[in-house]
């Protein structure tokens, strides 16, 4: 059978459809039919300026995917044709003896020097079909959803997993706590919904653009959700909203700009956890963003915690699968409106829409 593949020839270039023969899955392998793919901001970055991790062009983008199992190879028992599955982006290196990725590994794939990422070193899902190798099926981030589950929700597994990795790495930093989200993009909107599901006391969303902030507050707000414009008074205004506490308990950086990393430490107080969630990257790599920390007075005596979320492990994937399967994000459909749905013949249109300042989650439908 043939697969339809959308290749990007170069950064800022052209997507070209190609028909390629796809093999029957071998022992331990699974062939998938792509149903939906959502667009990540890293896809926008790759399209606009490329990434050093992508060594060969043309490239196959898109890593937030929901697929139907089309055929399984000999020995595969955990999946069967017709299953709807969601996939993670960060994937193991394939070495069964790896202390991170392997048979008895820790599962911390992002720590492995040989780890891969879908849509980067490993072809993404801007293609109608794919055969997953046996090591991906055995060790990788692939989970099965209940029968009849919505593929438009399933393709949001990976970004939600990344979000939950950051929000659960430190115990008890969300429930009954004040959560500050810097940026009002898709990751902050996932975090807002998760914080609501985890019973946060108050959620403060900071954003420069009024249009997207208003959309997020309108569609996902509540009595305990506050929006604050990112201006010269932002620190003072956040502090006021934290009352009767003196500071927020959890600060998540979801804006991939240096200014967000300059703002976040100014919001740190007693016992505050800061999650450096959105990295700053470009065609030339990752710029150095320096900040001085007082290890004694801040880290020790004020119990501050600086952490980062980079990708997701199976722990995050399982948490996201649980949140989605149990319907703990009842407003997730509002992540995507009619202007954010595209067909597989318009990948460029989908990426262009995802780059808009008012957009949240763009979904490409392959059926």
TrEMBL record:
Gene3D superfamilies: Medium-chain alcohol dehydrogenases, catalytic domain (3.90.180.10), NAD(P)-binding Rossmann-like Domain (3.40.50.720). InterPro entries: ADH-like_N, GroES-like_sf, NAD(P)-bd_dom_sf, Zn_alcohol_dh. Transmembrane segments: none annotated. The keyword Oxidoreductase applies. Pfam families: ADH_N. PANTHER family: L-THREONINE 3-DEHYDROGENASE (PTHR43401). This is L-threonine 3-dehydrogenase. It comes from Bremerella alba.
